[in-house]
Design goal:
The protein has about 425 residues and is an alpha/beta fold. It folds into two domains: about 200 residues, Enolpyruvate transferase domain (UDP-n-acetylglucosamine1-carboxyvinyl-transferase, Chain), CATH 3.65.10; about 200 residues, Enolpyruvate transferase domain (UDP-n-acetylglucosamine1-carboxyvinyl-transferase, Chain). The chain contains 14 helices and 24 strands. The longest helix is centred in the middle third of the chain and has 13 residues.
Length: about 425
Protein backbone atom coordinates (compact mmCIF):
# COMPACT_ATOMS: atom_id res chain seq x y z
CA UNK A 1 0.00 0.00 0.00
CA UNK A 2 1.55 3.29 -1.14
CA UNK A 3 2.62 6.06 1.21
CA UNK A 4 3.75 9.65 0.84
CA UNK A 5 6.88 10.89 2.55
CA UNK A 6 6.83 14.68 2.99
CA UNK A 7 9.55 16.90 4.46
CA UNK A 8 8.23 20.31 5.42
CA UNK A 9 9.80 23.73 5.27
CA UNK A 10 9.83 24.69 1.58
CA UNK A 11 7.73 27.60 0.26
CA UNK A 12 6.00 26.66 -2.99
CA UNK A 13 7.19 28.81 -5.90
CA UNK A 14 6.23 28.77 -9.58
CA UNK A 15 3.23 27.68 -11.62
CA UNK A 16 1.05 24.62 -11.11
CA UNK A 17 -1.60 23.49 -13.60
CA UNK A 18 -5.07 22.32 -12.66
CA UNK A 19 -6.56 19.18 -14.22
CA UNK A 20 -10.14 18.57 -15.30
CA UNK A 21 -12.79 18.16 -12.61
CA UNK A 22 -13.33 14.59 -11.51
CA UNK A 23 -16.77 15.53 -10.19
CA UNK A 24 -17.74 16.86 -13.63
CA UNK A 25 -16.15 14.06 -15.61
CA UNK A 26 -17.98 11.24 -13.79
CA UNK A 27 -21.56 12.42 -14.53
CA UNK A 28 -20.54 13.38 -18.07
CA UNK A 29 -19.23 9.86 -18.64
CA UNK A 30 -22.52 8.49 -17.28
CA UNK A 31 -24.43 10.77 -19.69
CA UNK A 32 -22.92 8.83 -22.62
CA UNK A 33 -25.32 6.03 -21.68
CA UNK A 34 -28.17 8.17 -23.03
CA UNK A 35 -27.17 7.79 -26.70
CA UNK A 36 -26.04 5.12 -29.12
CA UNK A 37 -23.63 7.60 -30.69
CA UNK A 38 -20.08 8.39 -29.64
CA UNK A 39 -19.47 10.97 -26.90
CA UNK A 40 -16.01 12.55 -26.78
CA UNK A 41 -14.92 14.17 -23.52
CA UNK A 42 -11.78 16.29 -23.25
CA UNK A 43 -9.78 17.40 -20.20
CA UNK A 44 -10.52 14.13 -18.38
CA UNK A 45 -8.33 13.80 -15.25
CA UNK A 46 -6.12 10.75 -14.84
CA UNK A 47 -7.45 9.62 -11.47
CA UNK A 48 -8.65 6.31 -10.06
CA UNK A 49 -12.36 7.18 -10.03
CA UNK A 50 -12.24 7.73 -13.81
CA UNK A 51 -10.71 4.29 -14.29
CA UNK A 52 -13.44 2.83 -12.09
CA UNK A 53 -16.09 4.54 -14.21
CA UNK A 54 -14.45 3.17 -17.35
CA UNK A 55 -14.61 -0.36 -15.95
CA UNK A 56 -18.25 0.20 -14.99
CA UNK A 57 -19.32 1.36 -18.45
CA UNK A 58 -17.28 -1.36 -20.15
CA UNK A 59 -18.92 -4.03 -17.98
CA UNK A 60 -22.30 -2.88 -19.29
CA UNK A 61 -21.21 -3.35 -22.88
CA UNK A 62 -19.95 0.16 -23.71
CA UNK A 63 -16.79 0.86 -25.70
CA UNK A 64 -14.57 3.23 -23.71
CA UNK A 65 -11.17 4.51 -24.78
CA UNK A 66 -9.18 6.60 -22.31
CA UNK A 67 -6.41 8.63 -23.91
CA UNK A 68 -3.77 10.63 -22.09
CA UNK A 69 -0.60 12.51 -23.01
CA UNK A 70 -0.80 13.62 -26.62
CA UNK A 71 -4.47 12.69 -26.65
CA UNK A 72 -4.98 15.61 -24.23
CA UNK A 73 -6.82 13.50 -21.68
CA UNK A 74 -9.54 12.68 -24.19
CA UNK A 75 -12.09 9.94 -23.72
CA UNK A 76 -14.23 8.30 -26.40
CA UNK A 77 -17.37 6.53 -25.17
CA UNK A 78 -19.84 4.64 -27.32
CA UNK A 79 -22.81 2.91 -25.73
CA UNK A 80 -24.28 1.47 -28.93
CA UNK A 81 -25.24 -1.72 -27.10
CA UNK A 82 -25.83 -1.95 -23.36
CA UNK A 83 -25.97 -5.71 -23.03
CA UNK A 84 -25.79 -5.80 -19.23
CA UNK A 85 -27.35 -2.69 -17.56
CA UNK A 86 -25.99 -3.57 -14.13
CA UNK A 87 -23.63 -1.53 -11.94
CA UNK A 88 -21.88 -4.39 -10.18
CA UNK A 89 -20.83 -4.06 -6.55
CA UNK A 90 -17.29 -5.30 -7.11
CA UNK A 91 -16.73 -2.34 -9.46
CA UNK A 92 -18.58 0.49 -7.71
CA UNK A 93 -17.82 -0.34 -4.06
CA UNK A 94 -15.12 2.37 -3.88
CA UNK A 95 -17.05 5.12 -5.68
CA UNK A 96 -20.11 7.08 -4.58
CA UNK A 97 -20.74 8.31 -8.11
CA UNK A 98 -22.03 4.88 -9.13
CA UNK A 99 -25.57 6.11 -8.41
CA UNK A 100 -25.22 8.47 -11.39
CA UNK A 101 -25.83 5.64 -13.86
CA UNK A 102 -29.25 4.86 -12.38
CA UNK A 103 -31.15 7.65 -14.14
CA UNK A 104 -29.57 7.35 -17.58
CA UNK A 105 -29.81 3.55 -17.58
CA UNK A 106 -33.54 3.46 -16.90
CA UNK A 107 -34.17 6.34 -19.31
CA UNK A 108 -32.30 4.59 -22.12
CA UNK A 109 -33.03 0.90 -21.54
CA UNK A 110 -36.11 0.83 -19.28
CA UNK A 111 -34.25 -1.21 -16.68
CA UNK A 112 -31.35 -0.63 -14.32
CA UNK A 113 -29.74 -2.66 -11.56
CA UNK A 114 -27.30 -0.64 -9.49
CA UNK A 115 -25.34 -1.62 -6.40
CA UNK A 116 -25.74 0.72 -3.46
CA UNK A 117 -22.80 3.16 -3.74
CA UNK A 118 -19.51 3.15 -1.82
CA UNK A 119 -16.77 5.80 -1.64
CA UNK A 120 -15.43 7.95 1.17
CA UNK A 121 -16.87 7.30 4.64
CA UNK A 122 -17.61 10.97 5.32
CA UNK A 123 -21.30 10.61 6.13
CA UNK A 124 -24.63 9.79 4.57
CA UNK A 125 -25.35 10.72 0.98
CA UNK A 126 -28.92 9.38 0.89
CA UNK A 127 -29.92 7.86 -2.41
CA UNK A 128 -33.59 8.13 -1.45
CA UNK A 129 -33.72 11.51 -3.23
CA UNK A 130 -32.78 9.72 -6.47
CA UNK A 131 -35.34 7.00 -5.81
CA UNK A 132 -38.19 9.38 -4.92
CA UNK A 133 -37.54 11.45 -8.03
CA UNK A 134 -37.45 8.47 -10.38
CA UNK A 135 -40.64 7.06 -8.83
CA UNK A 136 -42.33 10.43 -9.40
CA UNK A 137 -41.31 10.03 -13.05
CA UNK A 138 -43.03 6.64 -13.23
CA UNK A 139 -40.29 4.16 -12.37
CA UNK A 140 -40.85 1.13 -10.19
CA UNK A 141 -37.90 0.62 -7.85
CA UNK A 142 -37.14 -2.26 -5.52
CA UNK A 143 -34.15 -3.05 -3.32
CA UNK A 144 -32.76 -6.56 -3.03
CA UNK A 145 -29.44 -7.93 -1.72
CA UNK A 146 -27.71 -4.54 -1.79
CA UNK A 147 -28.93 -3.62 -5.28
CA UNK A 148 -31.52 -1.15 -6.52
CA UNK A 149 -33.58 -2.38 -9.46
CA UNK A 150 -35.55 0.17 -11.47
CA UNK A 151 -38.01 -0.44 -14.32
CA UNK A 152 -40.10 1.79 -16.56
CA UNK A 153 -41.53 1.57 -20.07
CA UNK A 154 -40.75 5.26 -20.52
CA UNK A 155 -40.25 7.87 -17.83
CA UNK A 156 -42.76 10.72 -17.60
CA UNK A 157 -41.98 14.35 -16.93
CA UNK A 158 -42.63 15.41 -13.34
CA UNK A 159 -42.54 18.40 -11.00
CA UNK A 160 -40.04 17.56 -8.28
CA UNK A 161 -39.01 19.65 -5.29
CA UNK A 162 -35.87 18.24 -3.68
CA UNK A 163 -36.21 17.90 0.11
CA UNK A 164 -32.59 19.01 0.39
CA UNK A 165 -30.04 20.25 -2.11
CA UNK A 166 -28.29 17.27 -3.69
CA UNK A 167 -25.64 17.44 -6.40
CA UNK A 168 -25.76 13.81 -7.53
CA UNK A 169 -29.55 13.71 -7.16
CA UNK A 170 -29.90 16.78 -9.39
CA UNK A 171 -27.50 15.29 -11.93
CA UNK A 172 -29.10 11.83 -11.95
CA UNK A 173 -32.64 13.10 -12.44
CA UNK A 174 -31.51 15.72 -14.96
CA UNK A 175 -30.10 12.94 -17.15
CA UNK A 176 -33.22 10.83 -16.71
CA UNK A 177 -35.53 13.72 -17.63
CA UNK A 178 -33.83 14.38 -20.97
CA UNK A 179 -35.47 11.25 -22.45
CA UNK A 180 -38.69 11.40 -20.43
CA UNK A 181 -42.05 12.09 -22.06
CA UNK A 182 -43.13 15.70 -21.50
CA UNK A 183 -41.74 18.46 -19.32
CA UNK A 184 -39.96 18.11 -15.99
CA UNK A 185 -39.51 20.94 -13.51
CA UNK A 186 -37.01 20.50 -10.67
CA UNK A 187 -36.88 22.91 -7.74
CA UNK A 188 -34.30 23.37 -4.98
CA UNK A 189 -31.64 22.08 -7.37
CA UNK A 190 -27.91 22.08 -6.76
CA UNK A 191 -26.19 25.04 -8.45
CA UNK A 192 -22.65 23.64 -8.49
CA UNK A 193 -20.48 24.19 -11.60
CA UNK A 194 -20.46 20.41 -12.07
CA UNK A 195 -24.24 20.47 -12.64
CA UNK A 196 -23.86 23.28 -15.18
CA UNK A 197 -21.07 21.36 -16.91
CA UNK A 198 -23.23 18.25 -17.23
CA UNK A 199 -26.14 20.31 -18.57
CA UNK A 200 -23.86 21.84 -21.21
CA UNK A 201 -22.92 18.36 -22.44
CA UNK A 202 -26.56 17.24 -22.48
CA UNK A 203 -27.59 20.30 -24.50
CA UNK A 204 -24.78 19.54 -26.96
CA UNK A 205 -26.28 16.04 -27.23
CA UNK A 206 -29.68 17.52 -28.14
CA UNK A 207 -31.37 17.88 -24.76
CA UNK A 208 -33.68 20.82 -24.04
CA UNK A 209 -32.67 22.27 -20.67
CA UNK A 210 -33.23 25.70 -19.13
CA UNK A 211 -32.04 27.03 -15.78
CA UNK A 212 -28.99 24.87 -15.06
CA UNK A 213 -26.92 26.68 -12.47
CA UNK A 214 -30.03 28.06 -10.78
CA UNK A 215 -32.34 26.51 -8.20
CA UNK A 216 -35.04 25.72 -10.81
CA UNK A 217 -34.33 23.60 -13.89
CA UNK A 218 -36.80 22.88 -16.71
CA UNK A 219 -36.30 19.96 -19.06
CA UNK A 220 -38.39 19.21 -22.12
CA UNK A 221 -37.95 15.53 -22.85
CA UNK A 222 -36.89 14.37 -26.31
CA UNK A 223 -37.14 10.94 -27.94
CA UNK A 224 -33.46 10.59 -28.72
CA UNK A 225 -30.07 12.15 -28.01
CA UNK A 226 -27.02 12.14 -30.27
CA UNK A 227 -23.27 12.19 -29.82
CA UNK A 228 -21.27 15.27 -28.88
CA UNK A 229 -17.83 16.61 -27.99
CA UNK A 230 -17.40 18.42 -24.68
CA UNK A 231 -14.52 19.81 -22.61
CA UNK A 232 -14.69 19.18 -18.86
CA UNK A 233 -14.44 22.15 -16.47
CA UNK A 234 -11.23 22.70 -14.47
CA UNK A 235 -11.26 21.07 -11.03
CA UNK A 236 -12.15 23.84 -8.56
CA UNK A 237 -11.29 21.66 -5.55
CA UNK A 238 -7.84 20.81 -6.88
CA UNK A 239 -7.30 24.50 -7.64
CA UNK A 240 -8.41 25.45 -4.13
CA UNK A 241 -6.12 22.85 -2.59
CA UNK A 242 -3.15 24.34 -4.42
CA UNK A 243 -4.12 27.88 -3.42
CA UNK A 244 -4.02 26.82 0.22
CA UNK A 245 -0.73 24.99 -0.40
CA UNK A 246 0.80 28.24 -1.61
CA UNK A 247 -0.67 30.21 1.29
CA UNK A 248 0.24 27.79 4.08
CA UNK A 249 3.88 27.55 2.94
CA UNK A 250 4.29 31.32 2.55
CA UNK A 251 5.07 30.81 -1.12
CA UNK A 252 4.38 32.58 -4.41
CA UNK A 253 2.28 30.17 -6.43
CA UNK A 254 0.40 30.71 -9.68
CA UNK A 255 -2.50 28.24 -10.02
CA UNK A 256 -3.07 28.02 -13.77
CA UNK A 257 -5.80 26.59 -16.05
CA UNK A 258 -8.54 27.16 -13.47
CA UNK A 259 -11.87 29.02 -13.39
CA UNK A 260 -11.53 31.81 -10.81
CA UNK A 261 -15.27 32.53 -10.57
CA UNK A 262 -15.76 28.98 -9.22
CA UNK A 263 -13.31 29.80 -6.41
CA UNK A 264 -14.92 33.02 -5.18
CA UNK A 265 -15.85 31.81 -1.69
CA UNK A 266 -12.36 30.42 -1.02
CA UNK A 267 -10.58 33.45 -2.48
CA UNK A 268 -12.64 35.77 -0.25
CA UNK A 269 -11.73 33.71 2.82
CA UNK A 270 -8.02 33.60 1.97
CA UNK A 271 -8.03 37.38 1.64
CA UNK A 272 -9.58 37.60 5.13
CA UNK A 273 -6.67 35.46 6.33
CA UNK A 274 -4.21 38.05 4.98
CA UNK A 275 -3.15 36.20 1.84
CA UNK A 276 -2.38 38.29 -1.23
CA UNK A 277 -4.44 37.18 -4.23
CA UNK A 278 -4.14 38.21 -7.87
CA UNK A 279 -6.96 36.95 -10.12
CA UNK A 280 -6.59 36.55 -13.89
CA UNK A 281 -8.86 35.20 -16.60
CA UNK A 282 -7.81 31.58 -16.06
CA UNK A 283 -5.36 31.70 -13.17
CA UNK A 284 -5.05 32.79 -9.56
CA UNK A 285 -1.75 33.82 -7.96
CA UNK A 286 -1.39 33.43 -4.20
CA UNK A 287 1.41 35.17 -2.26
CA UNK A 288 2.35 35.52 1.36
CA UNK A 289 1.04 38.67 3.00
CA UNK A 290 2.94 38.08 6.22
CA UNK A 291 1.42 36.30 9.22
CA UNK A 292 -1.80 34.42 8.50
CA UNK A 293 -4.87 35.57 10.47
CA UNK A 294 -7.70 33.38 11.79
CA UNK A 295 -11.07 33.47 10.03
CA UNK A 296 -14.22 31.37 10.51
CA UNK A 297 -15.85 29.26 7.81
CA UNK A 298 -19.20 27.51 7.44
CA UNK A 299 -19.58 24.96 4.67
CA UNK A 300 -22.58 25.46 2.41
CA UNK A 301 -23.88 24.41 -0.97
CA UNK A 302 -22.46 26.34 -3.93
CA UNK A 303 -21.82 29.27 -4.14
CA UNK A 304 -20.96 29.00 -0.42
CA UNK A 305 -17.74 27.63 1.03
CA UNK A 306 -17.39 24.05 -0.30
CA UNK A 307 -17.38 21.08 2.06
CA UNK A 308 -14.66 19.58 -0.15
CA UNK A 309 -12.32 22.42 0.96
CA UNK A 310 -13.08 22.23 4.68
CA UNK A 311 -10.27 19.83 5.64
CA UNK A 312 -7.67 21.75 3.63
CA UNK A 313 -8.78 25.03 5.19
CA UNK A 314 -8.45 23.51 8.65
CA UNK A 315 -4.79 22.77 7.95
CA UNK A 316 -4.37 26.45 7.06
CA UNK A 317 -6.16 27.48 10.26
CA UNK A 318 -3.56 25.66 12.37
CA UNK A 319 -1.00 28.14 11.00
CA UNK A 320 -3.18 31.26 11.44
CA UNK A 321 -2.86 33.59 14.43
CA UNK A 322 -5.99 33.44 16.58
CA UNK A 323 -8.99 31.16 16.86
CA UNK A 324 -10.89 29.84 13.83
CA UNK A 325 -14.27 28.14 13.98
CA UNK A 326 -15.04 25.59 11.27
CA UNK A 327 -18.69 24.54 10.95
CA UNK A 328 -19.51 21.55 8.73
CA UNK A 329 -23.11 21.70 7.49
CA UNK A 330 -23.03 19.20 4.60
CA UNK A 331 -21.69 15.90 5.99
CA UNK A 332 -21.97 14.71 9.57
CA UNK A 333 -18.74 12.71 9.64
CA UNK A 334 -16.19 14.95 7.98
CA UNK A 335 -13.79 15.67 10.83
CA UNK A 336 -11.83 12.42 10.62
CA UNK A 337 -8.67 14.33 9.69
CA UNK A 338 -8.78 16.22 13.00
CA UNK A 339 -7.20 13.50 15.13
CA UNK A 340 -4.36 13.13 12.64
CA UNK A 341 -3.74 16.90 12.68
CA UNK A 342 -3.72 16.77 16.49
CA UNK A 343 -1.09 14.03 16.29
CA UNK A 344 1.02 16.54 14.37
CA UNK A 345 0.61 19.17 17.09
CA UNK A 346 -2.56 21.03 16.10
CA UNK A 347 -4.81 22.49 18.81
CA UNK A 348 -8.32 21.52 17.69
CA UNK A 349 -11.47 20.69 19.66
CA UNK A 350 -14.73 19.37 18.23
CA UNK A 351 -18.28 19.91 19.43
CA UNK A 352 -20.88 18.37 17.17
CA UNK A 353 -20.54 19.93 13.71
CA UNK A 354 -18.16 22.66 14.91
CA UNK A 355 -14.39 22.50 15.21
CA UNK A 356 -12.38 25.17 17.03
CA UNK A 357 -8.82 25.63 15.80
CA UNK A 358 -6.39 27.62 17.93
CA UNK A 359 -3.30 28.84 16.11
CA UNK A 360 -0.60 29.38 15.31
CA UNK A 361 0.79 26.03 16.44
CA UNK A 362 4.06 24.50 15.26
CA UNK A 363 3.43 21.16 13.54
CA UNK A 364 5.74 18.19 13.90
CA UNK A 365 6.29 15.23 11.62
CA UNK A 366 4.38 12.05 12.43
CA UNK A 367 3.04 8.88 10.89
CA UNK A 368 -0.56 9.69 9.92
CA UNK A 369 -3.43 7.84 8.26
CA UNK A 370 -5.52 9.14 5.36
CA UNK A 371 -9.21 8.45 5.93
CA UNK A 372 -10.82 9.99 2.83
CA UNK A 373 -9.99 11.97 -0.30
CA UNK A 374 -10.00 15.54 1.05
CA UNK A 375 -8.63 14.54 4.47
CA UNK A 376 -5.62 13.16 2.58
CA UNK A 377 -5.01 16.53 0.94
CA UNK A 378 -5.33 18.25 4.32
CA UNK A 379 -2.60 16.07 5.81
CA UNK A 380 -0.28 16.72 2.87
CA UNK A 381 -0.76 20.48 3.38
CA UNK A 382 0.02 20.14 7.09
CA UNK A 383 3.10 18.04 6.29
CA UNK A 384 4.39 20.78 3.97
CA UNK A 385 4.90 23.03 7.01
CA UNK A 386 5.70 20.41 9.65
CA UNK A 387 9.13 20.04 11.18
CA UNK A 388 10.75 16.86 9.92
CA UNK A 389 9.54 14.03 7.70
CA UNK A 390 5.86 13.03 7.77
CA UNK A 391 4.70 9.65 6.46
CA UNK A 392 1.13 9.48 5.12
CA UNK A 393 -0.42 6.02 4.81
CA UNK A 394 -3.35 4.97 2.60
CA UNK A 395 -2.80 7.63 -0.06
CA UNK A 396 -4.96 5.58 -2.44
CA UNK A 397 -7.76 7.82 -1.18
CA UNK A 398 -5.95 10.79 -2.67
CA UNK A 399 -5.33 8.96 -5.95
CA UNK A 400 -9.10 8.76 -6.43
CA UNK A 401 -9.40 12.49 -7.07
CA UNK A 402 -6.04 14.22 -7.63
CA UNK A 403 -4.00 13.71 -10.80
CA UNK A 404 -0.24 13.27 -10.24
CA UNK A 405 -0.57 15.18 -6.97
CA UNK A 406 2.92 14.61 -5.64
CA UNK A 407 4.52 15.28 -9.03
CA UNK A 408 2.76 18.62 -9.37
CA UNK A 409 3.79 19.66 -5.86
CA UNK A 410 7.35 18.53 -6.41
CA UNK A 411 7.47 20.71 -9.52
CA UNK A 412 6.96 23.85 -7.41
CA UNK A 413 9.43 22.97 -4.67
CA UNK A 414 7.72 20.54 -2.30
CA UNK A 415 9.81 17.74 -0.81
CA UNK A 416 7.37 14.89 -1.37
CA UNK A 417 7.83 11.41 -2.73
CA UNK A 418 5.77 8.27 -3.12
CA UNK A 419 6.91 5.13 -1.38
CA UNK A 420 5.49 1.92 -2.83
CA UNK A 421 4.49 -1.22 -0.98
CA UNK A 422 6.86 -4.10 -0.33
CA UNK A 423 6.43 -5.23 -3.93
CA UNK A 424 7.45 -1.81 -5.23
CA UNK A 425 4.11 -1.23 -6.96
CA UNK A 426 2.94 2.30 -7.64
Amino acid sequence: MDKFVVRGGNPLLGTIKVSGAKNSALPCMAAAILTEDEVILENIPQVQDIETERKLLTSMGAEVELGYGRAQHRTHIKCAILSDPVAKYEIVKTMRASSLVLGPLIARTGIARVAMPGGCAIGGRPIDLHINGLEAMGATITQDHGYLEARADRLKGAHIVFDKITVTGTEDLLMAATLAEGESVFENCAREPEVTDLAALLVAMGAKIEGAGTSTIRIQGVSKLHGARHRINPDRIEAGTFLIAGAITGGDLNVDCCEPKHLAALISKLEQCGVKIDVGADHVRVRSGGELKAADITTEEYPGFPTDMQAQYMALATQSEGTSTVIENIFENRFMHVQELIRMGANITISGRAATVRGKTPLQSAAVMCSDLRASASLVLAALVADGETILDRVYHLDRGYEHFEEKLRGVGAQIRRMGDVFGKR
